[in-house]
Design a protein that fits this description.
Blueprint (H helix, E strand, L loop, with lengths): L16 H12 L11 H6 L3 E5 L3 E5 L1 E2 L2 E2 L7 H15 L11
Antiparallel strand pairs: 1-2, 3-4
């Protein structure tokens, strides 16, 4: 028996802190952000593509299967999200002292 998935859950991205931080960065930075499973055709046609890593933040993807994305250049939204993510990760109020917990 199948069950419905929560509205914000997508197969490619499990719910987690990094995902939540990136979506908050989008919201606070005035960037339209959403989650979605995409087809390969949509990936090829994208203006920008990035993946996300907890330690690295947004990582630009400029080529998929030999096809350039955004002319092979890192897009403006990805650059902006990288700055916002780095700021979020270094704000004093977002830091957690494991030795005081």
């Amino acid at each position: 028996m199948t069950r419905p998935l929560p509205p914000q859950f997508v197969k490619c991205c499990p719910p987690g802190v990094t995902r939540k931080v990136l979506l908050r960065c989008c919201q606070e930075g005035g960037i339209e952000g959403s989650e979605d499973d995409i087809s390969l055709d949509r990936l090829y046609d994208a203006d920008e593509v990035m993946i996300m890593g907890t330690m690295s933040g947004p990582i630009p993807i400029t080529n998929v299967d030999g096809r350039d994305i955004n002319g092979g250049e890192v897009g403006a939204v990805t650059k902006r999200l990288k700055v916002l993510y780095d700021e979020a990760m270094t704000k004093e109020e977002n830091l957690f002292d494991i030795f005081r917990a």
